[in-house]
Amino acid sequence: MSGDGYEEYEGFDRLVLDRTGQAEAFDAIGDRYDEAFPHKEGQLASGLWMAESLPPGSRVLDVGCGTGVPTARQLSEAGHRVVGVDLSPGMVEVARRQVPDAEFHRADLADLRAGGRFGPGGDRELGEFDGIVAFFSLVMLPRAEIPYALRALRNLLRPGGLLGLSMVEADVDDFAIPFLGHTIRVSGYLREELRQVVSDAGFEITGEETHAYAPASTDVPPEIQLFLHCRRA
Ligand SMILES: C[S@@+](CC[C@H](N)C(=O)[O-])C[C@H]1O[C@@H](n2cnc3c(N)ncnc32)[C@H](O)[C@@H]1O
């Protein structure tokens, strides 16, 4: 019990979840996403950490999987059983095509919580995972929702299970930015605050990497990417 009011997820249903435009932007971007964001050294390194830290055949959930490349593919090629979820039907379609050995569902992150469709007790329950990767997907949520989302992910992990999380380092909340010809809303934290939010959600942070990243596209500014390697405490 952390005593911070999140443990029963009771506040979650009172959050107003406005996803307007978020999936549509990624639906429209489709295959171009991989061209705009090449050379993902940081993400590949964190994917490798996850792939090598788990015994072959482990169940791994890729949250906000996008095109499935590089991460779902990397984990699947390492011999893990990968389940990917994404809000954008277009991204799910691309991911299914690019990573045929993995299983993909169109789902909102919020649907993974206890009582949600894909969460514990839901009619499409995904079950328990040995590892979860959430690379640049929690950036798409308002800050008020992120602690709940992290707790929902923790709840899907077996005891001692691993979480690989990446965020862009930025002190912003539900902030509209231009993104490959569309507008999306993003949130972020400075690194100390991110560590705090993740620890408060019941994770032990076992590793951290920082990467400076410049996307190929000119309308997306250079960014500092934070990768946290965590274990369910
Ligand atoms: C910046 S992309 C990252 C994609 C992939 N993880 C990667 O690193 O290449 C964010 C992804 O999160 C998905 N997304 C946005 N909001 C979401 C939500 N509420 N639930 C699930 N996925 C969401 C988007 O559709 C998009 O594919």
From TrEMBL:
Record-linked CDD domains: AdoMet_MTases (cd02440)
Q: Which UniProt keywords apply?
A: Methyltransferase, Transferase
> Has the keyword Transmembrane been applied to this entry?
no
Q: Tell me the GO molecular function terms.
A: methyltransferase activity
Quick one: a GO biological-process term for this protein? Answer: antibiotic biosynthetic process
Q: Enumerate the Pfam families for this protein.
A: Methyltransf_25 (PF13649)
Q: Which InterPro entries match?
A: Methyltransf_25 (IPR041698), SAM-dependent_MTases_sf (IPR029063)
Q: Which residues form the Methyltransferase domain?
A: 60-161
Q: Per its record, how is this protein called by name?
A: Class I SAM-dependent methyltransferase
Annotated organism of origin = Streptomyces palmae
